[in-house]
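Hi team,

Below is the intake form for N-acetylglucosamine-6-sulfatase from Armatimonas rosea. Please confirm the fields before the structure is written into the shared record.

FORM ID: S-0412
PROTEIN: N-acetylglucosamine-6-sulfatase
ORGANISM: Armatimonas rosea
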Amino acid sequence: MERPNILFIFSDDHALNAISAYGGPLARLAPTPHIDRIAREGAIFNSSFCANSICGPSRACILTGKHSHVNGFVDNDNSKFDGTQWTFPKAFQAAGYQTAIIGKWHLVTDPTGFDYWEILPGQGNYYNPDFLQQGGGRKRYPGHVTALTTKLALDWLDKNRDKSKPFVLMCQHKAPHRNWMIAPEHFTVFKDTVFPEPKSLFDNYANRASTLKTQKMQIDADMTWTSDLKVLPNPLGQENDKVGELNRMTPDQAAAWKAAYAAENKALLAKFPTMSEADKLHWKYQRYLKDYLRCVRGVDESVGELLDYLDKSGLAKNTVVIYSSDQGFYLGEHGWFDKRWMFEESVKMPFLIRWPGVVKPGSKPDALIQNIDYAATFLEMAGIPAPKDLQGESIVPILKTGKTPRSWRKAIYYRYSGEQTHNVAPHDGVRTDRHKLIYFPSTKEWNLFDLKRDPNELRSVHTDPGYAGVLAELKVLYVKLRAEYKAPEW
Ligand SMILES: [Ca+2]
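The structure came back. Fields below:
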């Protein structure tokens, strides 16, 4: 059989609740038809998790097939990716594939193992972004980053690759990462939509680890009025709170962008002095959701363009298409934006895959998979032997049968090492299909959640005598997985 191509479409901070194929509370109001097409024609995994819920670490886990504490990229503040280590693109290159990465990279050092790369510096910009060039230097392109990333990916597919070889293309979007700068074609999308609020928008963080209260990722307290929410002038008179991207825009772009928000902002500023704190949170939530989902709309359209190209070029039948994102994101659950926590909304990663002739269309496997599995999976797809020290496992048997092999993992291990941003405490833990055990070393606290009875994770049952048996079992599992994955002591 001809070796398949792999098109890995990846975004940044895309919550499962913002993909309609996952059927969350926003599915009807903010559909993602093109991403959903991958699920319809392939498989969608609901129990897909990251190993460390932040940007750089998730990417490093994917490239190496290993946990952060093993591949060395543990946080976004201090880590630099060691590009001399084994990565799956290097193995594909050695096996005769053409490899390329276009868009967000976020691993500090230059990419290795790619025949072609053109990447955003660091977090990159939404408007008129610079792309770092393979031969050194950078190039600024006029326009919005999502459309530009798509165009560069299509150019490589259509014109710039060696068509005598199979390919791996990683098309990696910046969107929908903070601060959610929307493209002109999406200015009026969701204009009159009112999004439903999650039950825990006003969470008071009771009945769980004390450290939940000290995070700084709340929509009410930590989301800024101007940079995040695009209210100009700043209603609190905070002069440091600015939309930095305005400096990159042409005068026409800036005028159009400001005009898009002008009427709503005027109405807000008029009533601002009489609004309660609760009123402000309701308002912030709606503005946040609209801009976030407008950025998602752009990513979904990008997926549509890429799938169309595969159809038109005849590549579709021998190309595996994956859609994923580096982690999930809070869309108001627990009153939050951002990620990091081992709670469901951020520890889950979208994972949708179409593999014509292999994956049965419409499959919904329930195996617990993790981003450390992608490298082994891709290698098996291409018939390339995997190194023995990979920590992830190939999910190809699951893709072929739709079933979970008996020997498959019964729990995933998760570890967030903590960094200054958003002041989220370090923690690690294990999650089975029903329960989740989390340990917070800075306060020496355990939390235990029963996801069947408490899917929103509002009450830890670690002191409940009825859960003593489950707690003991999960603590044994925690010790076992930490040893197996070589996790250092806290
Ligand atoms: Ca991210």
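SUMMARY LINE: Residues 12-13, 55, 326-327 surround calcium ion (CB under 6 Å).

Thanks, M.
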